[in-house]
Amino acid sequence: MQPSLDALRDVLDSECLLTDADSLQQYGKDWTNQYTPTPLAIALPKSTEQVVSIVEWANDNSVAIVPSGGRTGLSGGAVATSGELVIALDKMNQVLSFEASTQQVTCQAGVITEQLQQYALDNELYYPVDFASSGSSQIGGNIATNAGGIKVIRYGLTRDWVMGLTVVTGKGEVLNLNAGLIKNATGYDLRHLFIGSEGTLGIITEATIKLTRQPTNLTVLLLAIPELDKVTSLLNAFQKEIDLTAFEFFSEEAMTKVMTHHELPRPVETQAPFYCLLEFDATSEDILEKALSCFESGLEEEYILDGVMSQSQQQADELWKYREYISETISARRPYKNDISVTPDKVSEFLSRVDAIVAKEYPEFEVIWFGHIGDGNLHLNILAPEEMDYAEFTQACEQVNPLIFDVLKELGGSISAEHGVGLLKKPYLNYSRSEAEISYMKGIKATFDPNNIMNPGKLF
Questions:
Q1: 1 in a domain, yes or no?
Q2: Contact present, 19 and 3 (Cβ < 8 Å)
Q3: Where in the numbering of this chain does the FAD-binding PCMH-type domain appear (predicted)?
Q4: Is 14 part of any domain?
């Protein structure tokens, strides 16, 4: 028997509790599209106080909660499959305050990433956490998954920019964590437990975010490279001389699909099996000269075959398309994705070993490699043959996961670099976390969420 929603209707505005079929479908899933959403209802609070009331109702009625941000995740972390109440933060989308002296902005969790980036620019500052879904992902969801993206090599993860959080725990208690303090040596920093917690401890309702100076002259190099084991040499050579803001990697197969789909010309004359896209802030002629010197050395030592450097912001944007359009281009083929990472010094070995596994186990499947190789994050995309049943295809991919994850475990890597564990990666958590770690994480969850109503079934 379903619980009565009357008490929730008393808490929320009339348009903020949805039960129609279209809304249940829209808010009950994320970008994985592998699960059938069956939520009880969709609650759209406008304040932390309303979130508290909703969580209290859920505890009183033994109803599970699925927190929902922009629903751009790829691990099923925001999927409601068992009659849960979805709490969507879409209406909590206001910038609340800005402190110029500390370059900190406080906003509600439903603020879109791109909205925060634009707010920073309007104040002559910069929010550097950036990725393909910045136009629809929300700050709360980014924090809950510790989102990374294309600038991690220079600017770090979302965690590095969160100065304070307001959260509602699974008990319905409000915690104000760190409050924007730069120095705070008063015991456990609970803020960092909620960053990356995937909504299993509570709901992030507000965040204080640090901003930084805008880059002045972002310049892009797109380089053709002959083989996988040259990637580390290339990264080391450039990192020794200049500070990179991005170091991306993709295969010829990936670039060919982008060129075909978007009718783009080949950016370099030489066709190569792999390409690297480097971005750096060319603040002086000296930095440009060092970048060109690294490029010339790479040609001489044959870990670079060809390349092109942007001469304007427009050209830099054009070169970025070859990397940023990959996910969109292959989405129609419903790829099976593995978002994985190792330390950068092990990237070449990992790529080579996994490439051999994939070639052996998936001889009839198309394989698309790309990723943020400067921080060791790789995206392995297996494309489903158009004539193959998708369930059969998914099962075939899952059977090979242990082989890939065995290599990952041996090299000390992660089964999920930036999309969380959710439902999709839950069976493989032990490849990246020890039994002791998992036990401690479960204990932490029980403390914040004793009735296990917060995103149950996710992560563990």
A1: no
A2: no
A3: 35-214
A4: no
Q: Which residue has the tokens 């998954």?
A: 145
The alpha carbon of 285 is separated from its chain's Cα centroid by a whole number of angstroms, namely: 34
CA distance 291 to 3: 63
73 located within any domain: no
Two tokens, residue 445: 């969850």
Residue 388, amino acid: M
Domain that holds residue 398: 334-419
Return d(Cα 315, Cα 445) in angstroms, integer.
Answer: 48
Find out whether 36 and 76 touch, Cβ atoms under 8 Å: no
Global confidence as pTM:
0.93
18 strand-pairing partners: 42
For the chain, what is the radius of gyration of the CA atoms? 23
Residue located via tokens 């803020």: 191
pLDDT in tens, 400-455: 999 999 999 999 999 998 889 998 899 999 999 999 999 999 999 999 999 999 99
Question: What does the alpha-carbon distance between residue 442 and residue 181 come to, in Å, rounded to a whole number?
Answer: 29
Residue 387, pLDDT score: 86
Distances (CA, A) of 446 to 81, 432, 442, 443: 22, 21, 6, 5
CA–CA separation, 121 vs 333, rounded Å? 36
For residues 190-217, one letter each, b for 16 or more C-beta atoms within 10 angstroms of the residue's C-beta and e for the rest, the string is bbebbbbbbbbbbbbbbbbbbbeeebee
Q: What is the DSSP letter of 234?
A: H
- In contact, 226 and 272? CB cutoff 8 Å: yes
In a domain, 184, yes or no: yes
**Predicted local confidence at residue 341, as pLDDT:** 94
Write the pLDDT tens digit of every residue in 95-118: 999 999 999 999 999 999 999 999
Q: Which residues of the chain have pLDDT under 70?
A: 1
Total tally of structural domains belonging to the chain: 3
Structure tokens at 176: 């104000």
pLDDT (0 to 100) of residue 351:
84
